[in-house]
């Protein structure tokens, strides 16, 4: 049976030269698509590297922000302590009594008043060693090479610029 008897047109076989050109065209297109794919892969890798660097930079920026905030607290606390030491010293020089009130010093890490700070000169002279060392730690003052009396003298100096 021929193709014409069932109503379809006869199919023509492509010329070998046409087939060869078509295959070369497909190979060319495939090579171009592969180059584009390689370029896209390289661009995606660069983008991923940029994202990684951006995330690392954000982490460093956040760490720097935290350090700046901690330094701001520390510097503010140091100035508060200088002011309070001067006021404590002025009060003590004026009144010169054991009942002279003392302003509490401020923790350099938290910026809050140090709990357990002596409220009077008398309390300062009778403060126990553990409380003395806790306050000196909060003030970030090296005291471990001092005995109890030496640590208490450090606290007295840093509380009101005075020694015994």
From TrEMBL:
This is Uncharacterized protein. Keywords: Coiled coil. Residues 26-60 form a coiled coil.
